[in-house]
Amino acid sequence: MATTTFVSSGLEFVPNNYSAPLSNENAPEAFHLLQNFLAQSDIGHALVEPAKLSGSQIKAFWETGVYDDGGESGTPSIIFEFAEQEYVVTPTTVRDALGCEDFNAFTISVGDFDLQRMMREIGYSGPLARTGNLKRPFLRKEWSFFFDCITRAFGKKCTNWDAIPIDSLQIGYSLLYGTHFDFGRLVLINIGEKMTENRNLVYFARFCQLIFSLCVDGIEIAEEDVILSFKLHKRIFSDLTNKDIKKGNFAKGWG
Q: Phi, psi (5° rounding) for residue 219?
């Protein structure tokens, strides 16, 4: 269970793309509803899988991948090589790898008004005027957990986990209100930008593994090739509960 940057296969793996503790076992009952909701949601698979990560397979994907942003109206893509064969990764590929549903059309984003309405409905107690500056401590513990799971899995950053990025708000809105957010496009763009920015720093290790395994079928992961996976610790439940008690945060939850 990794919590800090580590080196494997000559690359440095950055602590992001955490898997989420969605099992009710050892989790207080107050968290069960949102644990179950996330587990059964369109990102349920993406929040917990895969069980194993291969250092060499992720290295091959990360070092050979060529990102094309698709321009203003095109489709972003990544082409990578393995065993002298090229593989093309599109948003559809990523959706398949993450277990997300494919729709004929997707909602690119919703506006600040809708995002602010969502936060009011789930009991956000802080100022809402600046949607890009929202913080998890203004949420009750269950909702803080909800957005922590989303941000740590999908966020490009690896620090300042109290902040709720716009992308996390968009994902949360999509899950709660049933809009067709394009998770595949978001993940592909984030990986492509980070890959292009620095070939020696690996972000989104779990998602890279899921994409590689979908494209290159039938490649086993040898035990000596298994690397650490970033995971949210179970102590998150006690930490969030204690913070709630200290600040007297008893805002009503959604639903």
A: -90, 115
Contact in structure between 21 and 231 (CB atoms under 8 Å): yes
Fill in the amino acid letter for 61.
F
Q: Where are the extended beta strands (E) located within 113-251?
A: 201-202, 226-227
pLDDT below 50 — which residues of the chain? 1-2, 249-255
Q: Match 């999908």 to its residue by tokens.
A: 154
What's the pLDDT score for residue 252? Answer: 46
CB 209 within 8 A of CB 50: yes
**Range list of β-strands (E), the chain:** 6-8, 11-13, 53-54, 66-68, 77-82, 85-89, 201-202, 226-227
Contacts of residue 226, defined as CB under 8 A and 6 or more positions apart, other chains included, come to 52, 53, 54, 55
Measured distance CA(111)–CA(133) in Å, rounded: 15
Could you tell me the pTM of the whole model? 0.92
The residues that bridge with 86 in the sheet, in sequence order, are 81
**110 burial via Cβ count (<10 Å: 0-12, 13-18, 19+):** middle
Chain center to CA of 82: 25
Q: Which of 229, 205, 215 is nearest to 96 (CA)?
A: 215
CB 62 within 8 A of CB 227: no
For residues 208 and 98, what is the distance between their CA atoms, to the nearest angstrom?
A: 10
Q: State the distance between the two ends of the chain, measured CA to CA, in whole angstroms.
A: 34
Task: Compute the distance between CA of residue 220 and CA of residue 115 in angstroms, rounded to an integer.
Answer: 43
